[in-house]
Amino acid sequence: MPHTQLLTRTDKALPARQLANALVQVAVARGADEQKLLRGTGIFSEDLLTSRAISAEQFMKLVGNAQKQYSGDDLAFQFGHYLVSAFVNDALPYFTHTAHFAECVRAIPVFQTRICPFLSAHRYDYNDEVFLVLQDAMGCAKQFVFMAEAFCAALMVLARHCTGKRLPFSFDFPYRRPRHIQEYEEGLGFRLRFEQPFFTVRINRQALLTPCLQANQAFKQFALRRYLEQRQFRRTLLDTVRFRLRYQAVATLPAMAKQLGLSPATLKRKLAEHDTTFSLLHDDVRRQQAIFYLQVQKLNNEQSALKMAFSDITNFRRAVKRWTGSTPSQLREV
């Protein structure tokens, strides 16, 4: 894959009219001043009404400004709700015309760099549940919680728009239960768990098969074809590295750089621009896998080690302890 197809946080490829304008409208409705919101972002009022592209870095500065000015604790949820309608003439037609909501969920990665470039969702299937583990796709750092909460709210709204129903999503948060819990309940419902290992969306597989109200194969294919003709970036840099690490357990930075058509120094520099390193991404992927296999699926050491390409159980135990701070047995007991 040529590296020109990998979206980074400095690429000006995000639609200001949809993303930035949606956030500004939500904040201004709660008393924020538009000029103060845009200050220091490099985004101007006229950009909110045009097709001018902005970078993820610019948008994250806008989020920081909005969080300081917004009077309330529901900014992320309100933004997520507004975001779906912002793409009414863009990506939304595809989702509207799918056969059922499972198709929508499968399509989210295809549209990710346009509608939710700041995070991605790695899918695990276990028993009758689908787990979508949310990951930082842009080096969001302090803004990741905001982006993840907005994604969850948008997913709820998208499901209702497509199916006419409030689908039974459950949400896991990797932090303590907040004092303003009513904002979470209003934005996401009551299936909430806090102090969990990951930011995760869970739903029963059968519920995902809820049919969409305006299913139309021809319209869906037309919307997809039009979008793919215009798509500039297929995936973010961080997601591409994570994706390859899942299937190349012993990959090195030089080998990864070669696969991406980059020099090792360039890949290292680009990752640093996203406030991460190759080693941190590798450990993040392996930690996620270890916790899911041991804590969620309750697999034994041999089964988990096999899935994670370990041939030596002792090395597997040591690695799990380093990644998670717990032994495999301790994880299974949670």
From TrEMBL:
Residues 235-334 form the HTH araC/xylS-type domain. Pfam families: Arabinose_bd, HTH_18. Coiled coil: none annotated. Keywords: DNA-binding, Transcription, Transcription regulation. This is Helix-turn-helix domain-containing protein. It comes from Alteromonas gilva. The lineage of its organism: Bacteria, Pseudomonadati, Pseudomonadota, Gammaproteobacteria, Alteromonadales.
